[in-house]
Amino acid sequence: MELPNHAKQLLLQLNQQRAKGFLCDVIIVVENALFRAHKNILAASSIYFKSLVLHDNLINLDTEMVNPSVFRQVLDFIYTGKLLSSSEQSSEQNFSALLTAASYLQLHDLAALCRKKLKRGGGGKPLPGKPSTPGPLSRLRLNNQRLATSTPAGPKNHYPPTPSDAEQPQPDEGLRDKLSDDEMFVGSSGRNGNGGNGGSNGNLSSGGSAGEPDLGLDLSKKSPPSAGTATDALSPHSNSQESPQSASVSTTNSASLDDSSTTLPGGDTCGSETAELNSSSKASEEHHNQPDGPPAQKKSRQGARKNEWPKKEASGLKSEDHDNKPLVNGVAAAPKDGKAAFQCKDEEDGGENGQDHTDESGQSDGESAGGRGGTGGGGHHSANYVYRQEGFEPAFGDNLYVCIPCGKGFPSSEQLNAHVETHNEDELYIKEEGGTFVKEEDEEEAEDLSATVGPSSFGSEARPFKCTVCSKSYKDPATLRQHEKSHWLTRPFPCNICGKMFTQRGTMTRHMRSHLGLKPFACEECGMRFTRQYRLTEHMRVHSGEKPYECQLCGGKFTQQRNLISHLRMHTSPS
DNA sequence: CTGGGGAGGGGGCCC
DNA sequence: AGGGCCCCCTCCCCA
């Protein structure tokens, strides 16, 4: 007894689930595009994928072997067993690219299909790209070395199947379909959920230009030639509660599409389709979950803040602005322009504050002017980044993780990390001096304030493990060790997407969540979502009216401690 | 226009 | 590894 259509139905279901991001548990990064998929499916399709998905939820593919447009077809093939054939996709060149990708990914059936097609089409032309580059196996090894690590998959950043594969929903339905399961949520916070198009879609072509292939999430933040296209892949600010139509897939789509088509190298028409997923998801959610009444004020606030995301994200991803670093392989891929893949921005920027180092410099919107610009080169770890010097490039080859003290390169952060620990740690400490102690001053100030606010974080309990550099002490050696890394020259944990380096893995993965727009913590009252539990806790005070932080000087009460602190500054500042 | 407050976001760091 | 807290940045609203 056998159901004749069982396999077909199953595949159809799976593909539909992929379309919705349902149960997708892996993200594949190809250049600037993100694709969501199911590990099981990938693993069943290719031994290569099988090895990749085993330990990683986020996979970077070699952009020399596959580009977003081609990978979309590959993924479609995996989920449907069919090769789509639009006129563009039927071109010989496309089959060549597909063949390259299929070989690389060890999708033998697809490779055979492509070969057949090429043969039939009188091919025989050499494959485009780099046919003589190392074969898939060696590539695989390289990639495995570079692959980065587990990052929870974002539900909306996926690259959905083409309409012909999965059901093609009506526009409204489409939005809903693209909503993922609610435990994972990509998109902007509620305040921009109704933010309209953030004013940045003005130059978008409309309507997902027929036939344009859907594209992965564009993570590139390269500045488009024209201003006003701050909308980018991660920008979840399109769509609007006020005008649901504007949240249509096509509108926002074209945002990224437009953007990426101008910015992606090689003119690869990998428009992004998924950018809107972020926003539309939020919009949809709000649409469905219409909070019964967020106060009118709240609503208007959200509307008014619609522009916040673009700026935030612009800064968040700005690192690509500088060198047009490709976003692959755990670190920036071999830069096409031969520049440093991981330039220490602090150096680029003349020593900007470490905390802001990623973001604020060089942004044309002038954000960098604000805030701590005045700290006078005061990055507290001004050299604390793995630094890939321009001149070192040839020597390092694929070893993008470089130990500053000795100049050795390593292919992975783990190996660098291991290496760093072989150094006499004294060598690794930064002798902080000059402006680098600005933070210390900040901390002093903070402690002054915290004396008013609450107990200092360092109590009097036994803390036998003392840092030799700054004299801070800890209860256990692991914590001390963790702390000591903050004095090291290297930051062993790079963000896969923007390349920013972190001293702690947890910070890096949390940072990744912001790239992927994962907001697992939802407010039951208003539906607003947050990346961190703590934020939600804070936020809930908005609804409860609880104001636990009281100013000892004037009796003013605050929902958030930070606001009390800033309030106290008002008391203490001379002005 | 300005200053203060509220609140969302990100990174650092300790537990 | 993840949670929690602290700090900073930024934006918006409002008086």
Task: Give a verbal description of the structure.
Belongs to the krueppel C2H2-type zinc-finger protein family. Hic subfamily. Residues 305-325 have a biased composition (Basic and acidic residues). GO terms for molecular function: DNA binding; DNA-binding transcription factor activity, RNA polymerase II-specific; zinc ion binding. Its main location: nucleus. It is found in: Nucleus. The chain has 575 residues and is mainly alpha-helical. Among the domains are: 66-82 and 95-114, no CATH class; 464-516, 2-Layer Sandwich (Double Stranded RNA Binding Domain), CATH 3.30.160; 519-574, Classic Zinc Finger (Double Stranded RNA Binding Domain), CATH 3.30.160. It contains 23 helices and 13 strands. The chain has helices at 6-20, 39-45, 47-53, 68-80, 92-105, 108-120, 136-146, 171-178, 190-193, 249-263, 275-288, 296-304, 308-316, 319-323, 345-348, 393-396, 413-422, 425-428, 438-453, 477-485, 505-516, 533-544, 561-572; strands at 26-30, 33-37, 58-60, 401-402, 409-410, 465-466, 473-474, 493-494, 501-502, 521-522, 529-530, 549-550, 557-558. Strands 2-1-3 form a three-stranded mixed beta sheet. Helix 2 (39-45) packs antiparallel against helix 3 and helix 5 (92-105) packs antiparallel against helix 6 (108-120). The longest helix is centred in the C-terminal third of the chain and has 16 residues, at 438-453. The protein is elongated. 46% of the residues are buried. Mean pLDDT is 53; it is low at 123-398, 400-405 and 423-460. The structure holds a DNA duplex (15 and 15 nucleotides).
